[in-house]
Amino acid sequence: MKILLVEDEIEMQKSIIHYLELEKFKVEVANDFEIAFEKIQLYEYDCILLDITLPKGNGLELIKSIKNIRPKTGIIIISAKNSLDDKIDGLNLGADDYLPKPFYLPELNARIKALIRRNTFDGVDVITINEITIYPDERKALIHDLIINLTAKEFDLLLYFIANKNRVIQKSALVEHLWGDNADQFDNFDFIYNHVKNLRKKLLAAECSDYIQSLYGVGYTFKTQL
């Protein structure tokens, strides 16, 4: 799952990034309003962590832009401005949650996971698609109740496919979701084929239905409506 952290305090950035990466999140950072605005125009995120007080702009204005450009993206305000008005204004503009500084990183992690479950998986802790069962917090995938051995990228790929089941997914979207800012360093996205091929091979070996369909020249779809 991919997170955008909009925060200009360097030490807080480092601590949040370190903790969330240990939790297997992909974390990108924007130090000010302008960088954050550019990123939300270019990329999709599962959750945005947003400070209200930002260089070059106001976090509340950024919430308006996020809800206009990416209306389904979850937003958690993390701010030292703990006044009731800021909290109400942020929630009224479309933020999903508000966590005042200072906060415990495990609480932030729990709120991020709860928000993603609500927005992406209807609030459930265990995701079931026919014979596939996913435990996101444990990063465990089962086929017919048997655990399959997936790499970190394969697990993230499967979870992304399931979150976007029956939709056409471009190769560029897969790369941006799994590699974040590093996606810009690739000349083309053909390498994603090997990751998809390996995932599909493992699913089929576990006697899973062949849900992953390739769309020549476009990308893929995880087609559960067979």
Number of folding domains? 2
Shape: globular
Class from secondary-structure proportions: alpha/beta
Low-confidence stretches: none
Number of helices: 8
Provide the residue-averaged pLDDT: 88
User: SSE order in H/E notation?
Assistant: EHEHEEEHEHEHEEEEHEHHEE
Helix content: 40-55%
Strand tally: 14
How would a textbook summarize the main sheet?
5 strands, parallel
Q: In CATH, what is the homologous superfamily of the largest domain?
A: Response regulator
Strand order of the largest sheet: 2-1-3-6-7
- CATH architectural group of the largest domain: 3-Layer(aba) Sandwich
Rg to the nearest angstrom? 18 Å
CATH topology of the largest domain: Rossmann fold
Descriptors:
226 residues; Rossmann fold; four-stranded antiparallel sheet; globular
Provide structural commentary.
The chain has helices spanning 10-22, 33-42, 59-69, 84-92, 105-121, 152-163, 171-179, 192-205; strands spanning 2-6, 26-30, 47-50, 53-54, 57-58, 74-79, 97-100, 127-129, 132-135, 140-143, 146-147, 168-170, 212-215, 219-222. The protein has 226 residues and is an alpha/beta fold. It has two domains: 2-121, 3-Layer(aba) Sandwich (Rossmann fold); 127-222, Orthogonal Bundle (Arc Repressor Mutant, subunit A), CATH 1.10.10. A five-stranded parallel β-sheet has the order 2-1-3-6-7, sandwiched between helices. A hairpin with a 2-residue loop joins strand 4 and strand 5. The protein is globular and about 55 Å long.
Give a nutshell description of this structure:
The protein has 226 residues and is of the alpha/beta class. The protein contains eight helices and 14 strands. It folds into two domains: 2-121, 3-Layer(aba) Sandwich (Rossmann fold); 127-222, Arc Repressor Mutant, subunit A, CATH 1.10.10.
